[in-house]
Amino acid sequence: MESNQPDQGEEMEMVMDMVGFGGPEEEAPVMSFNMLDPGGGEEEVPVRKSPYQFDLFVIGGGSGGLSCAKEAATLGAKVALADFVPPTPIGTTWGLGGTCVNVGCIPKKLMHFAGIFGDYQGDQRECGWELPTNVPHNWERMVANVQKHIQVLNWGYRVQLIDKEITYFNHYASFVDSHTVALHDKTGKFVKNVTSENFVVAVGLRPSYGGYPGAEECCFTSDDLFSMKSVRDNILCIGASYISLECAGFLHSLGKHVTIMVRSILLRGFDQEVAEKIGSFMEGLGMVFIKGAVPIQFSKTEDGKVRVEYEQNGEQKVEIYGAVFLAIGRIALTKGIKPENAGIVINPRNNKIIVDEADRSSVPNIFSIGDVSDGRPELTPSAIQAGSYLAKRLFGGSTHIMDYVNVPTTVFTPIEYGCCGLSEEKAIEIYGDENVEVYHSMFKPLEWNYLESREGKYCYGKIVTNKLENEKVIGLHYLGPNAGEVLQGFAAAMKCGLTKEILDQTVGIHPTCAEELTKIDVTKRSGRTAAKTGCWG
Ligand code: FAD
Ligand code: NDP
């Protein structure tokens, strides 16, 4: 049947034309949508009884900032938001929405999905799909589709700001005093000062280059990876936490040779038994680990490859790689906001803003949420919830504060790892070995039985309980397919005080991997094998 509706591709082009997207957003017009200037354009700030132009000025249009601005506007506050993205050393920049949308969770998960699809080719053949072998992967096509989706999200955020009459400045903001910010454009030119009763700082983090000679010239980071038109083969990923392992995982699955340089341990802060299983799984897939190593310097070879000098266990070494991906931590963007002009106290250890439990900084009218706040998880959902709760406290009469206990998370490595609560070692450190009971199980997902070569020993469930509190579940760990989907509901149960007894009484959904967590009965203390034999009965 013929249709007059544009197809998805055409519709996207129309949307992009409407907003003038020719690439990453840069010098967008300043917009104001208030009663005196409903048409937008160069803003005229209305005359208000308050001595300030706005009730709330949010610096940073990422997960936390957008959530706070939108909620505050919904509650009737007069809100402005500034968001600006300085380009990376190789010139990458992006639109409204912050890290998660542009260079974090969203493109990462889409590329992880692309990788998992590749990993399942063997299984697909055994399911009867007559796929050719050695199917090549088209990186450019994947990136184009990922970027198309991101641009839709960028546009969606712009529309939300317009709908909620939030004044948007695509400018860099820094404090002049505790009620004034100065806005600068992309050339660094001063644009104007803006005043507000309250400020929320949600400026997030950017990747560290570690100060290594040649790093900025020779390496790329997660700020570049998701929009790169091509990536050379033979990639060195430096770092051993979430970002490095996740990106290493999908790069390998998409056909690249990947080496991972590890300074100390994998996934610091996570359950180390599970972290080691992830490492073994990745090694089993063909990724190479260089352990106990740190870079010294980088330089380009004549044919555009990267010469990496590094130190491993006290010995200096040199290797040539096609490309080097740096994921060695992230730097809080507090320097640029000139916190000293407003009197905001920064933690000198990590440059993050020190806040109280209600997100208030050392300055009473200045708040901070998300990654840049000291002591908070660096995760999108907690930034979003913190932003919304803060707006409700400021403008909705709420007293509700964020509860950061039992925030679940998933590491999207080729074998996914979802967890909530304490690692086994942390639980023992807090409660003592005699008061902690650990249950575990090693299992093979039913679907993995199509491919004989697929091993089952890596899928793993671990339940950590506190014997002093009726075996309350204080840590839940799951290593296997769809970890985020599996863990979300269990995290809700933990919020409700889940005990091992309730878990045992929970009827499983058969045949799934999630049900495995309701059936674990082997304690580590017993010394019995955790390996499941046979099936699920
Ligand atoms: P951001 O989203 O970083 O937003 C801050 C914004 O402020 C940016 O746009 C910045 O350019 C702007 N800004 C900075 N300074 C100024 C200034 N002076 N003036 C104006 N604007 C300024 N979390 C998850 O929960 N799940 C995941 O799967 C996940 N994957 C990730 C993968 C990667 C590769 C990375 C890097 C992160 C990932 N995260 C994930 C973490 C998540 O992206 C962050 O926790 C989240 O985006 C933090 O939100 P935020 O609002 O604090 O800051
Ligand atoms: P982390 O700070 O967690 O890890 C940095 C890694 O780099 C560590 O392995 C560290 O090793 C290593 N490292 C640090 N400095 C050096 C150096 N000079 N040389 C070599 N190695 C070095 O940062 P990430 O960037 O991985 O992640 C940041 C945050 O983003 C996470 O904590 C998480 O909250 C969020 N995130 C969430 C994701 C999700 O939810 N799925 C995915 C990705 C990120 P060492 O252990 O020795 O210090």
TrEMBL record:
It comes from the Eukaryota. The active site is at residue 510. InterPro entries: FAD/NAD-bd_sf, FAD/NAD-binding_dom, FAD/NAD-linked_Rdtase_dimer_sf, GSHR/TRXR-like, Pyr_nuc-diS_OxRdtase, Pyr_nucl-diS_OxRdtase_dimer, Pyr_OxRdtase_I_AS, Thioredoxin/glutathione_Rdtase. FAD binds at residues 109, 371. Its cofactor is FAD. One of its GO terms (biological process) is glutathione metabolic process. Keywords: Disulfide bond, FAD, Flavoprotein, NAD, NADP, Nucleotide-binding, Oxidoreductase, Redox-active center. Pfam families: Pyr_redox_2, Pyr_redox_dim. Its EC number is 1.8.1.9. Binds 1 FAD per subunit. This is Thioredoxin reductase. It comes from Blepharisma stoltei.
